[in-house]
Amino acid sequence: VQLQASGGGSVQPGGSLRLSCEISGLSLRYYAIAWYRRAPGKEREGVACINGAGNTEYVDSVKGRFAISRDNAKNMGYLQMNNLKLEDTAVYSCAAELAQCDHLLTLWIRPSNWGQGTQVIVSS
């Protein structure tokens, strides 16, 4: 399985970015896709997850601002990030696992493959 996150960049507070996760080596339909981030000096945290049925979960700090989606036909996952804040600055990475979203977001189950991340910088 290979995962490649892209779409990061540098934006001002209040700005938006759309991250993409290209997933290869598996049939995505039954997998949950999760986004994680690691801010400088902090532990990795789960940000958002979407399961095979399309149900979504988010960490409280991004609820109402971030939206996760998927396109099984293209083997892609997406994270739309709106109203970005300084504290959203981090390296974002994605994972695809046969697991429940709450287990993935809390890292009770740690993905076997994070893929290469993409840097998001929010600064004024």
Provide structural commentary.
The protein is mostly beta strands and 124 residues long. It contains one helix and ten strands. It has one helix at residues 101-105; strands at residues 2-6, 9-11, 17-24, 32-38, 45-50, 56-58, 66-71, 76-81, 90-97, 118-122. The strands form two sheets. The chain has a six-stranded mixed sheet with strand order 2-10-9-4-5-6. Strand 7 and strand 8 form a beta hairpin. The longest helix has 5 residues, at 101-105. The radius of gyration is 13 Å and the shape is globular. It starts with a strand and ends with a strand.
Secondary structure layout:
Blueprint: E1 2-6, E2 9-11, E3 17-24, E4 32-38, E5 45-50, E6 56-58, E7 66-71, E8 76-81, E9 90-97, H1 101-105, E10 118-122
Parallel strand pairs: 2-10
Antiparallel strand pairs: 1-3, 3-8, 4-5, 4-9, 5-6, 7-8, 9-10
Give a short overview.
By secondary structure, this protein is mostly beta strands.
Report the structural category.
mainly beta
What is the makeup of the main sheet? Answer: 6 strands, mixed
Considering DSSP H and I runs of 4 or more, what fraction of the residues is helical?
A: under 10%
N to C succession of SSEs: EEEEEEEEEHE
Mean pLDDT: 96
Strand content: over 45%
